[in-house]
């Protein structure tokens, strides 16, 4: 099994493509020869990335600037997808909040839910029918190792990512035999390969560099997993350790401990 081959008529759609994991995956897909549809809020940033990819790889790159936390903006993107032959979809856009749920800004929490969960749900539905009809396609939804365990002071984010994790893995099994794959990317901490010392957090300073997952290595592992039709990919040693501990460790002990740490981030 491999990723769908790039063609002149198909597009790989990547949300959250203006930075982080989404941008890294988009850049690697372009290097593979895929035409792209990049989605994020910041049009100027997207256009800059698009021009870089066109020049470097000779691929077609379209841009749709929209806020996927808004229902009408998701609908606008779906209207574009109706006239686009999507052979790869990567739902990477997402945000987080930290601190007690009762003290969070409700508008931000609602936007977080809509972006992290509802948009993923709607966009997956928008492309999967045509993929199955063609007998080819690959979907990757970015969940999180945080979706494995209750985390106080991160409740809304955990709510959304637990849903994305379970939804994606369920769909993976449903799509077996259709020619369409569905892969969950469940990362832990991911960062740039190099962080200036003045920008390093306490976590950056405490955790050894070799344990971190960079955006570039995360993108490579993710696309390799998608090409193999894997159900779940957890890139990097630190993420793998967190994924194992959060899945099999005693939640009654782990949840308050992690929640205490997250309260400081809030």
Can you describe this structure?
This protein is an alpha/beta fold and 266 residues long. It has a single domain, classed as NAD(P)-binding Rossmann-like Domain (Rossmann fold, 3-Layer(aba) Sandwich). The protein contains nine helices and nine strands. The protein has a seven-stranded parallel beta sheet, sandwiched between helices. It is globular. This is SDR family oxidoreductase. Residues 12-193 form the Ketoreductase domain.
Secondary structure elements and pairings:
Blueprint: E1 10-15, H1 20-31, E2 36-40, H2 43-57, E3 61-65, H3 71-81, E4 85-91, H4 106-134, E5 137-142, H5 155-174, E6 180-185, E7 190-191, H6 202-206, E8 213-214, H7 215-227, E9 232-233, H8 237-248, H9 251-265
Parallel strand pairs: 1-2, 1-4, 2-3, 4-5, 5-6, 6-9, 7-8
Helix pairs in contact: 1-2, 1-7, 3-4, 4-5
Q: What's the average pLDDT?
A: 90
Oligomer: single chain
CATH architect. name: 3-Layer(aba) Sandwich
How many extended strands?
A: 9
Query: For the record, what CATH class applies?
Result: Alpha Beta
Q: Count up the helices.
A: 9
Q: State the CATH topology.
A: Rossmann fold
Biggest pleated sheet: 7 strands, parallel
Shape: globular
Which residues form runs of ≥5 with pLDDT under 50? none
Biggest β-sheet: strands ordered side by side in the sheet? 3-2-1-4-5-6-9
Helix amount, in percent?
40-55%
CATH homology superfamily: NAD(P)-binding Rossmann-like Domain
Order of helices and strands: EHEHEHEHEHEEHEHEHH
Distance between the termini: 43 Å
Which class best fits the helix and strand makeup? alpha/beta
Family: Belongs to the short-chain dehydrogenases/reductases (SDR) family.
Keywords: Oxidoreductase
GO molecular function, one term: oxidoreductase activity
InterPro entries: KR_dom, NAD(P)-bd_dom_sf, SDR_fam
């Amino acid at each position: 099994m491999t990723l769908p081959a790039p063609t002149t008529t198909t597009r790989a759609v990547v949300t959250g493509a203006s930075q982080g994991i989404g941008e890294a995956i988009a850049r690697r897909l372009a290097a593979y020869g895929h035409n792209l549809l990049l989605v994020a809020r910041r049009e100027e940033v997207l256009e800059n990335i698009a021009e870089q990819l066109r020049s470097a790889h000779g691929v077609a790159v379209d841009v749709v600037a929209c806020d996927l936390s808004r229902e009408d903006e998701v609908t606008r993107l779906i209207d574009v997808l109706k006239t686009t032959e999507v052979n790869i979809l990567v739902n990477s856009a997402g945000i987080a909040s930290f601190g007690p749920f009762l003290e969070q800004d409700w508008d931000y929490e609602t936007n977080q839910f809509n972006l992290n969960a509802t948009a993923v749900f709607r966009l997956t539905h928008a492309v999967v029918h045509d993929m199955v009809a063609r007998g080819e396609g690959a979907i990757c939804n970015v969940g999180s190792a945080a979706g494995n365990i209750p985390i106080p002071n991160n409740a809304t984010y955990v709510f959304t990512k637990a849903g994305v994790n379970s939804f994606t893995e369920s769909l993976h099994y449903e799509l077996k035999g259709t020619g369409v794959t569905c892969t969950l990317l469940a990362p832990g901490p991911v960062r740039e390969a190099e962080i200036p010392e003045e920008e390093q957090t306490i976590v950056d300073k405490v955790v050894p560099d070799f344990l971190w997952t960079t955006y570039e290595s995360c993108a490579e592992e993710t696309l390799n997993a998608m090409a193999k039709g894997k159900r779940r990919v957890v890139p990097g040693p630190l993420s793998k350790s967190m994924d194992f501990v959060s899945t099999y460790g005693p939640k009654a002990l782990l949840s308050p401990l992690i929640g205490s740490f997250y309260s400081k981030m809030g």
